[in-house]
Design a protein that fits this description.
single chain; 89 residues; mainly beta; three-stranded mixed beta sheet; 3 strands
């Protein structure tokens, strides 16, 4: 999803503070409507929906997202390609 903003009229939450990190992870409720067109996202080479933001409301502090490292389906380190057992001698 891409947010469509009106410069000088309405900005996405966090932008009005001058820097996105200054909102300290707050959650917002967005008001607006879905546009009748899609926008191109070059990083993923896809077309995505566009939400035309008309306003927002501060809900409160957000809960931090816990990011765990990906886990392998293998048990133990013996199957790891980087274990000492798999180093060619």
């Amino acid at each position: 999803m891409i947010l469509k903003e009106d410069p000088g009229v309405i900005f996405a939450p966090g932008r009005f503070l001058g820097h996105p990190d200054r909102d300290h992870g707050n959650q917002y409720k967005l008001y607006g409507q879905w546009a009748d067109f899609k926008a191109y996202e070059p990083n993923y080479d896809v077309f995505v929906d566009v939400f035309e933001i008309k306003g927002f409301e501060l809900i409160g502090p957000g809960t931090p997202i816990k990011l765990d490292p990906p886990r392998s389906g293998r048990s133990g380190s013996s199957g790891s390609p980087f274990s000492r057992r798999n180093i060619p001698r």
